[in-house]
Amino acid sequence: MVDGLECIHGAAANLFWRQRIGEIVSDMKAKGIEVDAIGRAIHDLQHGIHAELQKRALAQGATG
Question: What is the pTM of this model?
């Protein structure tokens, strides 16, 4: 997912994010995972993706 977000920006990135998260949430609900657990998992995923995007941007800035 990080690779996809790294390549797109603005409204397209927002749409990509919302679609992917929607798919993940739907899959988790279908598996019977509780709403609170889904919320925590999505929050953790968002944090991890944001951290990786920042790391890549900093690395690119250092080499770019």
Answer: 0.81
Distance in angstroms (rounded) separating the CA atoms of residues 9 and 7: 7
| Token output for 29 | 């609900």
Residue 20 dihedral angles phi and psi, to the nearest 5°: -65, -45
Query: Where in the sequence is the domain holding 33, given as residue range(s)?
Result: 2-63
Q: Which of 62, 63, 47 is nearest to 1 (CA)?
A: 47
- Mean pLDDT computed over 33-59: 95
3-state SS assignment for residue 2: helix
- The number of domains in the chain is 1
**Across the chain, how many H-helices and E-strands are there?**
3, 0
